[in-house]
Amino acid sequence: MSDTDISQVTEQLAKTTVEGATELSFAGQGLKLNNEEDAKDIVKTITDFKDMRSLKLEGNTLGVDAAKAISKALEKHPEFQRAKWSDMFTGRLKTEIPQALRFLSNGIMLANARLVELDLSDNAFGPTGIDGVVELLKNECCYKLKELRLNNNGLGVTGGKILAKTLLECYKLSSAAGSPLALKVFISGRGRLENEGSTTLAAAFKAMGSLEEVQMPQNGIYHPGITALANAFKENKNLRILNLNDNTFTEVGAKAMAQALPQLQNLEVLNFGDCLLRTGGAEVIAEAIREGHSKLREVNLSFNEIRKVGAISIAESMENKDCLEKLDLDGNQLGEEGIELVQGVLESMEKLDFLGSLSDDEGDPDEDEEDEEEEDDEENKDASKSENEEENESDDDAVDYSTSRMNGTPVSPRQPEKESSTPVDTSPDLVEELEKLTLHYIEKIESKSMLTGQ
To answer: 85-96, pLDDT tens digit by residue?
Structure first.
């Protein structure tokens, strides 16, 4: 490490903060720690810190050897409880990350610490990365774990299954030790868990029954996985925050979730935005939360292809929600009439101020179709009227010419009305065409007269 690099590290370490005398933070310093020498000053700071309950390493990047050195410092802290280690492997190979996590885990286990929080969010380590903390999560160091944050890790189905199996094993081991795992916060958004991963995790959630916050947005979960999660949530009656945004419920998943919601009376935040609930799904969700749920503060059902009937049902279900702060129905298909009706319902409850913006409403497809049909009808009527008028004018011309011819007084066919600003075309070609047209109608009329005996 060059003198310049050392001075940069020293300068960054000067920004190290001590929060509340129990948290040591190196957050956001952009340190690139490749080896033990790079980590020397951090190791010393950690080692010398008294009563280190929390350690923030986010916003730096750790190599395997640097993690090994830091793990030795962690061994000195049996009081350690919160590992806030999000975004600390930028630029590292996926094969490096599990090794680094194993070293850090060993430091915690050798210290015999008792973790209550593990945050590894924004480390895109995929299914291989979770292997690095499997032994830690099964160890007695995690029997009292309350918060597990794995947001934006890209675990995939395989990683989800490994994690679920590990949590179940921890629950069984901790139960046998007389201190069952009682996780309160589980966050795993953008994890590509899909149906299989979420279904296996649901089994762990059901076993624990202690969750208060679950956030699993954007995981590619369809109604089979949603149904499994809904059944698990029935056993987690203290659930306060439920975020499944950007998965795919459909009405089938919505019905399964609607069966669970009446048992979740502590809910404060309900986020099913962008979940393809559609109108039928919205109606069953509305019915499920209509009674009770007095603690609800936020309800997000935006971008769900909900039409005005479903949106009105949701609005009506807000009547007894005295803690309501925000209702988001934007990006649905209410149309102008639907928007006015929803606003009217909420205004009658004195809750209109809590309705979010509806600027991205997609309009009511039924109204659009009716408008299009009316326009088509008008166009067809105008076209038909024009054709009939032209036909009648041509017939009148032919009749006038035929009558006058029979009376021995030929009359020129009727010319179209002239516009004052446009001269009449009297070219020989046009005259010839008109004569042909006139003779054609004369022949038709004479033929008709012969057939009728007139």
So the answer is: 999 999 999 899
